Amino acid sequence: MSDSVPELQALADLPARYAALTEQLRSVIVGQHQVIEELLVATFCQGHSLIVGVPGLAKTLLVRTLAASLRLEFRRIQFTPDMMPSDILGAELIQTDPQTGERRMQFAPGPVFANVILADEINRTPPKTQAALLEAMAERQVSVGGATRRLEEPFIVVATQNPIEQEGTYPLPEAQLDRFMFGLWIGYPKPEEERRIVGMGDEIAARAERVASVFDGHELVRLRRAIGRIPVSEHVVEYAVSLARATRPGDESCPAAIKRFVAWGAGPRTGQALVLAAKCLAALEGEPTPSCAHVARLAPAVLRHRLVLNYAASAEGVTAATVVEQLLRDIREPTYV
Fold first, then answer.
1. Which residue from 55, 121, 176, 241 lies 20 to 30 Å from 158 (Cα-Cα)?
2. pTM for the predicted model, two decimal places
3. Residue 98 CA to chain centroid, in angstroms?
4. 191: helix, strand or coil
């Protein structure tokens, strides 16, 4: 009980501090309010995010500013076709002791040994290198030279993809996409937002340098434990499971409009992500427990990248976002008599 009291107090203070953190990010990033909210939810859950957007939409600036606001060590990895796993994880190198002259193997850690990793254009690197990052994402550890090394918590990967250039890329397999808690789509700014961005000029970079820390890494770890302990009703769990199951063409609950365009639906990890994210969003808004509305708000970010569409969808120009919108219309909250 004594351990849970500080965590409960941290949740009580969370909405005000979350508002301060959001304000810090919005002082640097113009617009993109939904993306900021979803990225923060994933961060407080210590989940990984995949951001899809064309170049020049401040994806790197957003993640760098987030890391600075949370007082976390930030590393950016630019993925290229010639990148090897050791370029990410590190390698055993021969080092000479300056005192004794003795030569021995010593581990030189790679850029993955940080708190917030920006995996820029992750689909530019071959599957072998993508797989090296997968262990770090899934297990929070890396294996190099026969030794396993733990990654310091919190450990959060934010990967980016350019939706335009697909030549010379290596699409992420479904198993790796499923490791991302959220798939975020960042679009062009609105006209008034773009005018503001252009008018600010170099002031954006100056504001990023002045960002103040609102949380630190240790607090994030404690908050993640507290969020996991938030109670959730069977009603909300049933709704999250219903959404996940309704994306599977072989399931009897799958609506005809969904079955027509989906080849493979979302797995059980989807329901877990929906419930955890809903708990987090409820805590950020000062609510004692999540509702189905919280689940529905975050369903697009959780579901879009987990759906494998078929040829009919491609032929008719149907996207994963369209399918999820239809899903939310077709699947109603469960009712109990």
1. 241
2. 0.87
3. 44
4. helix
Q: Residue 147 half-sphere exposure, CB side, CA atoms within 13 Å?
A: 13
The 10s digit of each residue's pLDDT in 144-199 is 777 888 888 889 999 988 877 666 678 888 878 888 999 999 888 888 888 888 88
Contact status, residue 282 vs residue 308, Cβ threshold 8 Å: no
Q: How far apart are CA 164 and CA 284, in angstroms?
A: 34
Query: For every residue of 199-210, which 3-state class applies, written as one string?
Result: HHCCHHHHHHHC
Helix, strand or coil for residue 51? strand
Whether residue 277 contacts residue 228, with contact meaning beta carbons closer than 8 Å, is answered with no
Q: pLDDT: is 94 or 263 the higher one?
A: 263
- Number of other CB atoms surrounding residue 182 within 10 Å: 26
Longest dimension (CA), the chain: 79
Helix or strand holding residue 14 (H, E): helix 4-26
Q: Enumerate residues 6+ apart whose C-beta is below 8 A from 241.
A: 271
Residue type, 333: E
Burial of 145 (C-beta count, 10 Å sphere; 0-12/13-18/19+): middle
As given in the structure block, the two tokens for residue 172 are 């992420």
Q: Which DSSP category does 264 fall into? A: E
Which DSSP string corresponds to 200-253?
HTTHHHHHHHTPPP---HHHHHHHHHHHHTS---HHHHHHHHHHHHTT-TTSTT
Question: What pLDDT digit, counting tens, does each position of 250-274 carry?
Answer: 888 888 888 899 888 888 899 999 9
Say what the pLDDT of residue 1 is: 44
Place of tokens 């609105």: 190
